[in-house]
Design goal:
It is a single chain. The protein is an alpha/beta fold. A 7-stranded parallel beta sheet has the order 10-9-8-11-12-13-14, sandwiched between helices. Strands 16-15-17-18-19-20 form a 6-stranded mixed beta sheet, covered by helices on one side. The chain is elongated and about 105 Å long. It starts with about 25 loop residues before the first strand and ends with a strand. The N terminus is likely disordered. The structure holds nicotinamide-adenine-dinucleotide and 3-phosphoglyceric acid. 3-phosphoglyceric acid binds next to loops.
Length: about 625
């Protein structure tokens, strides 16, 4: 029998109750699951329902959020209800078909705000374009059922992200499929505005032939300022260069070398707007960009400038634009987007003879709409399966490789949080958490956001009725006054693994198990991943080694022979299966901690019998 005396060198006790070492093929791969149990992820995870709130529901059973990679649980489970997906705006057919393979799809367009609220209360996912306002009221009306909002396009300014996050609802978008369409529309507006195509067309249709009235301006040699050098802005710049234009750009966040590679100079805002003959807007609508084109900025523009907007109406003060048009500062404007959509019929801006308008058509090509539909359908279905989305807007985006590497540590993190909080006497006093990640990798090579979120989930869910997931973990922690500080320590272990150990400490709180209190007076537990399986390796100052499967009994006892046999017999008599057992001690023949992993939950009388063993000074039963 191997005993150990510190947390850093622990050996498992091989008794007849000790399960064989788990093989790498039984690696658990888990993710904070969003919701649905009908499917488990083909890649990584299964989901829990919003009802995942009690310790009982989070034990390792087939029916909950943990799945075994590559196991049969990757199969469709017909006994569980399909997720309901509400598609509230027209979506390309290919995307709808993809969604139908996965869930019950309700395509209901042009819903009133009231009808939308009614429908979301019965939906797991909602898909919109720019025409639906997904407000705080919508999330409130969903009463926790809505787990994913998919924005079939780029701009998410019509979704209340803060409210989504507070409600634990993931927002995903489809940011790439309509880039070219938007850029092409920008170029179409630029060229048609310069040559008065729309006005001349209307004039002929009105029976006129006005050749001298519609003399245009040439593009070649003119300076175009691209405001926002992101996906669309870059494509517009590329095309404008092909038209022989001199292109400059303003974007405080774009890398200069990417611009330079296209022959585009990144300049200041004032320099861009004061030197350009054409200004094309491609920045998102944010508090910083709202009405950034206003009386003051128009006054700095070159007289006779031409303006194109295929980004968002709200970046322009529309009344100021009318004034600038009337004053001749802005010679012409071509607008695809408006502060209010649709704009009012008698809007001075829309009716202005020097303004060309289209009804938010930037993304509206057949190709782009099919692409966007597929992109968003895949993102929503993935999120419903509990996968982390590469296009998540309000949750950490994690590279799939990093995710697969971190997956067993994510399981460990949640279990450590769950165990630690059960060791505190009186959950309400839990305020201050310290997490120490020991790793052989450089500090910058370990992204701990997922781990922190799962520790938070593990701590909060057993002591509250909150549903915690990756999206809302930080928010709920803050709301509950939980302070989580993180430390990373570089240790001399193998850099092949992202984390060597995770230690979770609950500071300034009493424990119901004195053995879990470390020398510093805090509840402290530590765990590692071994062969892909989370293990508890330290409780207070005692080293143990028990795989975190099933439930756990911790006993603090006088270190003497025969303890394992006595407790094992009590459990065996009550038909409670021991899956792992380990003993750690600090000083020979003084005190030891016995950690016993059990598959079943022992009855109270069984636990009482364990407590009755004379050498046992205290014990605690913990649900994983
Ligand atoms: N009209 C349409 O149908 C249509 C279609 C697609 C995209 N859009 C809109 O176009 C805009 C750009 O889309 P994208 O896909 O290129 O997004 P993107 O995120 O790739 O690019 C936006 C760029 O704007 C930059 N930016 C942010 N704040 C800025 C500021 N204050 N000044 C200058 N630049 C700033 C960012 O750094 C980023 O490079 C978005 O508003 C999107 O909603 C409209
Ligand atoms: O942000 C976008 O993707 C565009 O504005 C397209 O919006 P739409 O999906 O409403 O056409």
């Amino acid at each position: 029998m191997a005993f150990s005396s510190s947390c850093s060198s622990v050996k498992a006790v091989n008794s007849r109750w000790t399960s064989p070492s788990p093989s790498p093929s039984s690696r658990l791969a888990v993710i904070p699951a969003f919701l649905h149990r009908r499917y488990t992820a083909s890649v990584k995870l299964t989901a829990t329902s919003a009802a995942l709130k009690t310790v009982e529901q989070t034990t390792l059973t087939e029916d909950n959020k943990f799945s075994t990679v590559g196991s049969d649980s990757d199969e469709y489970n017909p006994t569980l209800p399909k997720p309901r997906i509400l598609v509230a705006e027209k979506l390309g057919e290919a995307g709808v078909n993809l969604l139908r393979e996965f869930g019950d799809v309700d395509c209901s367009y042009d819903l009133s705000p009231e009808d939308l609220k009614k429908k979301v209360a019965e939906s797991d996912a909602l898909i919109v374009r720019s025409g639906t306002k997904v407000t705080r009221e919508v999330f409130e009306a969903a009463k926790g059922r809505l787990k994913v909002v998919g924005r079939a396009g780029v701009g998410i300014d019509n979704v209340d992200l803060q409210a989504a996050t507070e409600h634990g609802c993931l927002v995903v978008n489809a940011p790439t499929a309509n880039t070219v369409a938007a850029a092409e529309h920008g170029i179409a507006l630029l060229a048609s505005m310069a040559r008065n195509v729309a006005q001349a067309d209307a004039s002929i249709k009105a029976g006129k032939w006005e050749r001298s009235k519609y003399v245009g301006v040439s593009l070649v040699g003119k300076t175009l300022a691209v405001m926002g050098f992101g996906k669309v802005g870059t494509e517009v710049a590329r095309r404008a260069k092909g038209l022989g234009m001199n292109v400059i750009s303003h974007d405080p966040y774009a890398p200069a070398d990417r611009a330079r590679a296209l022959g585009v100079d990144l300049v200041s805002f004032d320099q861009a707007i004061s030197t350009a003959d054409f200004v094309s807007l491609h920045m998102p609508l944010t508090p910083a960009t709202k009405k950034v084109f206003n009386d003051e900025t128009f006054s700095k523009m070159k007289k006779g400038v031409r303006l194109i907007n295929v980004a968002r109406g709200g970046v322009i003060d529309e009344d100021a634009l009318v004034r600038a048009l009337d004053a001749g500062i802005v010679a012409q404007a071509a607008l695809d987007v408006f502060c209010e959509e649709p704009p009012s019929k008698d809007s001075k801006l829309i009716q202005h003879e020097n303004v060309t308008v289209t009804p938010h058509l930037g993304a509206s090509t057949k190709e782009a709409q099919e692409g966007v539909a597929i992109e968003i359908a895949e993102a929503v279905a993935g999120a419903l399966r509990g996968e982390l989305s590469a296009t998540a807007v309000n949750a950490p985006m994690v590279d799939p490789e990093v995710l697969s590497e971190l997956t067993p540590y994510i399981v460990l993190a949640e279990k450590l949080g769950r165990l630690a909080v059960q060791l505190a006497s009186g959950g309400k006093g839990v305020q201050s958490i310290r997490v120490v990640y020991r790793s052989a990798r450089n500090r910058d090579d370990l992204d701990t956001r997922l781990l922190r979120a799962m520790i938070t989930k593990g701590i909060i869910e057993p002591i509250s009725d909150s549903y915690v997931n990756l999206v809302n973990a930080d928010f709920i922690a803050k709301q509950k006054g939980l302070r989580i500080s993180e430390e990373r320590m570089v240790v001399d272990s193998s850099p092949e693994y992202p984390v060597d150990s995770i230690q979770v400490q609950i500071l300034n709180v009493e424990s119901n198990f004195a053995g879990a209190v470390s020398d510093s007076g805090d509840i402290s537990i530590e765990g590692k991943v071994k062969y892909g399986v989370p293990h508890l390796t330290c409780v207070g100052s005692f080293g143990v080694d028990v795989s975190l499967e099933g439930n756990l009994i911790l006993c603090r006892q006088v270190d003497q022979p025969g303890m394992i046999g006595q407790v094992g017999n009590i459990l065996g008599e009550q038909n409670v299966n021991v899956n792992f057992m380990s003993v750690g001690r600090t000083v020979l023949r003084k005190q030891a901690i016995m950690a016993i992993g059990v598959d079943e939950e022992p009855e109270d009388k069984t636990l009482e019998k364990i407590g009755g063993v004379s050498a046992i000074e205290e014990f605690v039963f913990l649900k994983l």
